[in-house]
């Protein structure tokens, strides 16, 4: 029992001294020497010691102290080694594995050496005990001492083999993990390469598409300037197809069509009419009569312009199943309706313009000439609508039209009937919403029956040659008829929105509010 206590004490003390010596605690080495001297002195002072036993005890004490110190020194080094940060450990995951101390070379060697020393110490101790036993039992005890001592010594090899097998298993698992990571890295790199290639291919396709669109657009615009009507018609249809399939080009192509219609032009039947230019403003008459020398055939050019008008009218007409008061439609290549389109037809000559139940954004028909009948029935003007200075040479219908922004008809000329029945003149955010008809000349009947003026309706300086019908109109603000007049050449049966009387002044009568 004393031998076991001494072995445990010296081994533990050596382990402690080795662990602390790494931190420069040299005083612990002296403590180990003193502890070993204490155990040795205690043994030497006993009555049962012998020279052989003394030698065995001194060797055993020295070996246990040395082994314990070596193990403690190795453990101290392991504990004192700074732990790598997470980033460094992640960076070294693909490198050699970091073994636990027990699975390192020094750990396996130390463990095997400890077991071997314990076996040797046990063998020596048991042989010493067997040598002091009575003769009859000495042989048997010596055989047992050899058997158990050598068995413990052999266990050192078994322990080393077990630790090596465990390290080999850990190495195999680490290699498998590295292989999986390598495969994941390869797959990730392949996926990144594939995405990059798809992005490059998509970019190339977009570039090719843009180039193709530019080429088609340029070619179609060039065709519009050709002398042959058939070539110009082909250019119009090419632009229509391009706008239908390319949402981003719709407004641009509409602008091109509007620019074509704004070019000076007079229909052939009007050029032959002696009374045509007499009914126009002087500027408009000079514009139209100045194009008679155009090399283009007037009848063929008329067909080209009618085609341009029909393209606009066809794509600005709302679908019949769409509720104009419902949710606004968004541009879609699968539908022929082109929403949110602005029109600039200022100064254009339009023949038999027919836009039933259409929808346009901001539009300008300033100083435009409408030849033949003009139809805007049920059309919604979602932004400003400018008809100032426009000339309507035929019947003009704005029945059920909706003006959500400002509507200006000042200085417009209505040569024949003008109908605004049930039209809605409503203000919109950012606009005053006034319906302006100042200095308008209504040369035939004008019908505003059922119209709704949500802002001020101004008819100042207007001339009503034919009958004026304002029955059942709604005025949220009092309308204005300052210095307006009517023709007295025919019996009048007018229906005014406010009490007005006619004061004769020659062939005309001034409207005066009662």
Could you explain the architecture of this structure?
The chain has 514 residues and is of the alpha/beta class. It has 2 domains: 2-81 and 97-170, no CATH class; 225-319 and 333-513. It has 11 helices and 26 strands. It has helices at 2-21, 27-44, 51-80, 86-91, 105-131, 135-224, 229-245, 250-262, 268-271, 282-289, 298-316; strands at 343-344, 349-351, 359-360, 363-364, 369-371, 374-375, 380-381, 385-386, 391-392, 396-397, 402-403, 407-408, 413-414, 418-419, 424-425, 435-436, 441-442, 446-447, 452-453, 457-458, 463-464, 468-469, 474-475, 485-487, 500-505, 508-513. A hairpin with a 2-residue loop joins strand 25 (500-505) and strand 26 (508-513). The relative contact order is 0.04. The model is unreliable at 22-28, 84-92, 283-294 and 428-433 (pLDDT under 50).
Task: Describe the structure using short key phrases.
about 525 residues, rod-shaped, 2 domains, alpha/beta, 6-stranded parallel beta sheet, 9-stranded mixed beta sheet, 11 helices, 26 strands
Q: How are the elements arranged and paired?
A:
Elements: H1 2-21, H2 27-44, H3 51-80, H4 86-91, H5 105-131, H6 135-224, H7 229-245, H8 250-262, H9 268-271, H10 282-289, H11 298-316, E1 343-344, E2 349-351, E3 359-360, E4 363-364, E5 369-371, E6 374-375, E7 380-381, E8 385-386, E9 391-392, E10 396-397, E11 402-403, E12 407-408, E13 413-414, E14 418-419, E15 424-425, E16 435-436, E17 441-442, E18 446-447, E19 452-453, E20 457-458, E21 463-464, E22 468-469, E23 474-475, E24 485-487, E25 500-505, E26 508-513
Parallel strand pairs: 1-4, 2-5, 3-7, 4-8, 5-9, 6-10, 7-11, 8-12, 9-13, 10-14, 11-15, 12-16, 13-17, 14-18, 15-19, 16-20, 17-21, 18-22, 19-23, 21-24
Antiparallel strand pairs: 24-26, 25-26
Helix pairs in contact: 1-2, 1-3, 2-3, 3-5, 5-6, 6-7, 7-8, 7-11, 8-11
